[in-house]
Please model this.
Amino acid sequence: AQSVTQPDIHITVSEGASLELRCNYSYGATPYLFWYVQSPGQGLQLLLKYFSGDTLVQGIKGFEAEFKRSQSSFNLRKPSVHWSDAAEYFCAVGPFSGNTGKLIFGQGTTLQVKP
Amino acid sequence: EAGVAQSPRYKIIEKRQSVAFWCNPISGHATLYWYQQILGQGPKLLIQFQNNGVVDDSQLPKDRFSAERLKGVDSTLKIQPAKLEDSAVYLCASSSSPGHQETQYFGPGTRLLVL
Model:
């Protein structure tokens, strides 16, 4: 069965420091991979997605993620964190199957940014 | 462009009562999703509609949950009777077409507390 693991439930970084959020997936083939961000009281917003091709994906708000097939990972990175990046981040996998758009989410990583 | 609208934003009910949530997707979006997000977990897909037809409802607890999208636009999710474990945020999302190539846009969610 497909699954997504985000090993870090909570991460605290200082403003201006670099950030890496980990994501590992379990799937038999190369899945569609996503990162979403959720601010308090708001819905999820797509940061970036990977379908195929270049394994380094650029997203919005200065985020990027790298797909590593050998490690079944899709880690999210940002070189310099801003206080407004404090939120919850979800990694998701989308099994390819016809018309289904079903996303399987990890449990999320809460990011706290220290001034 | 208006986003996905949901109402109510908050609802408190007692167990065994019924409750309904409403979702208005982005104009022109044929695909609509309902997700359940329990505290501390990632969202889980309950049901996916394509226009007014169901694509995937494999994780919908059909003994108590029902959903409809009669005219292929707005959708209603109902719980009857509610249980304590139904306390969660119910997220609605829409996309222009099914499949993972199209971005899912999420609404702010309805937070349900069952006492």
In short: Residues 93 and 106 of chain B are 4 Å apart (CA to CA). Chain B has a mean pLDDT of 94. The two ends of chain B are 37 Å apart (CA to CA).
